[in-house]
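[Solved] Which block belongs to which protein?

Original post:
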Amino acid sequence: MPGKQTAAVAYTVDGLVIAFNKVVVAGFNKKLKKLSSGLMKSIVKKYNVTPSEVANYPFSKFAEGLEEKLGARKYQTLSEAYNMTIMNIEYDKGIVLERTKFERAQAAASLNPLAGLNIQLDQINSFQVRAVDHPIEKAMAFLEAGDTNTYGVCFDGQNLFDTTHSYGNVAGSQSNILTGGGTTLTLIHEDVLTAIGLLQGFTWTSDDNHSRLLNPQVTKIDIICAPLLYPKFLKLKQENNISVSEGNMVKGFINDILVYPFSDGDDYYVIDVSDSEDDLRPVLFQEEKKLEFNTPNLKSESYIEEGLLKYGANYRGGVGYGAWWRAIQVTNT
């Protein structure tokens, strides 16, 4: 007997638009998961904030340890003296497709009319990727410009990457900028070890004038680098030795290597990710209104009279600087 043939699905033009929209909405929902992985997970602490023009972030003092009891119990007040605010901004963009493309795909009467819309699917996919990546792009712009005040400063009044940091509202003497020795494998190995030491050594001073570690135990780091440096960091992550005579002391520390096309391909960033994802990160991202993807209304004037399908994406949020002590900028001239 001849094989059973699959019947073609008969679509009206409007039905084809509806089917197309279901596909692109499903694709958008999958892409949203990217916001909680990769670069965002490494450098960004995300907050969902209540509707307001700005959100306030108080950096309180840390709790002190126990002490010998001499008389009545002493209570510490954890003041919220170090504050910074981040403004919420509305971000929006749209893309237009022509209904004639759908009419021609429907008229072709193929087994799968959606196959005639592959170009349009690619266009929507590209638009969605840019929309979902927008917070990541903003965060990476903040990171790369962190040695300037282009996008603001940390709560201590210093640039994200600076030589005069403190855990307070005045300048200090702690630096999270490292002048690198170069980009050979041996020199990168030395600089990453130095960066780990710097991360381990950042401190805050308690009210009783004792120094405490801001990063109690640095056990895992992420590397964020330009594409050309990726192979070298991959060797540091995977290989036991960096040369015949020198062991690789960085191997156990590198958690992930994240690639971004920085304007200076020789610079890179070492991020402490030893603690849980709930802890502070170098960049703060607040989301007042979640990212939405809008499909066209088939009863709209633009669709009926102009033959245009309007898609759009929108969210409201803001980006600011957070924990300077979690990141080291390694610069190579």
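(Second protein starts here: sequence line, then its structure tokens.)
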Amino acid sequence: MPITLEFAQLFSSFMDRAGYTDTYLARETGIVRQTIFRWKQAGSKFTPRRNSILRCAQVLKLSEKECNELLTATQLDKLTKTEAEYLQTEVKYLQIEGKKLTSSFFEGLISPFIIGMPVPIEKFFGRRYEIDYIAEILSQPPIQNIFITGARTVGKTSLLHYLHYIKYEKGEVKRNDRHFQSIPMALVDFQDVRMQKQTNILAHILRELSLPLPEVDSGPVDLYWFMDAVDQLIAPAIVLLDEIEAGIQAPDLSIAFWNCLRSVSQRFHQNKISFIISSSYSPLALTELSDQSDKSSPFFNTFGHIISLGPWNHSESKMCINSSPKPFSEEDQQWILEQSKGWPILVQLLCDLRLKAQPHWRELALQRLGNYRYLLGKDEDK
């Protein structure tokens, strides 16, 4: 349904009253700036979802009446009693792990739990053993390559993002995390179609490591330029390769490309780069895939350190559960722990359903869990 004139005018007036720009509101709500712009244009086909309206209502400090006007103008039902209570709740301060955090019960309705997407640093839980193990490997020369494997949705991408973005975290961090803040690092996502082109990926890595790129009139980065540029590294660097199976199957990434990566990571005693790769394939299955793709490079045999991600332990699961802005009962916490078996995505999923307090949420949760039989050991074809 196109944006109505009534909604466009109301939304624009509320933004004007608050004195917020499209950019500011986008940053505060997580909604794309262009989408917010189009909501102010009558006739636009970018109809806002209910949750997006509620998120804007909180940031714009709308009253219950004003929020209902927006919902009605989009032909959505008015606020439920629970939603109205959340909207009117003043900001509360919660004590979580000794840190004073600002939150509101309305934010709890939107849910801080993330399902099926990489988790940002501030919502990353657990994996301390794996992070400390990686830090130990990388702190002792010669730096070595690491293979991270595990079932899909187990959190491999989130772990790589944590390692990469921890350098931007301000304030005090855990001791071993400081190592990742001080070392040059590049992150490559092979699911990004741009990263399936050799020239793009080489330029991206050099750019991330602050290494020189060729002049515009000299043409794109080739393997020769890449290796010469890497030789300029004063200290070792890390390259994180996510979803590497997608890279192996990319037609433009030839065996010469993979052999180049092997060369820069194993230059006798002067190895310059440590590669940390992630894959839902086992090391043996990944080698077989490279053989089938006619890319049987020795690069795939350089990963002696293998980390297999499994469920969270009890304390890690509890840490995530206790991050809820609205505390759960002990009974609900125990049910979440038992049903999720500690798998991160399932803990997040069940916490999300419980936080929204939907009627018969446990019944709905059991239905949703059916999509994750491969984690719970109920799928014969793993």
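Accepted answer:
You had them paired correctly. Confirming on the second one: The longest helix spans residues 5-18.
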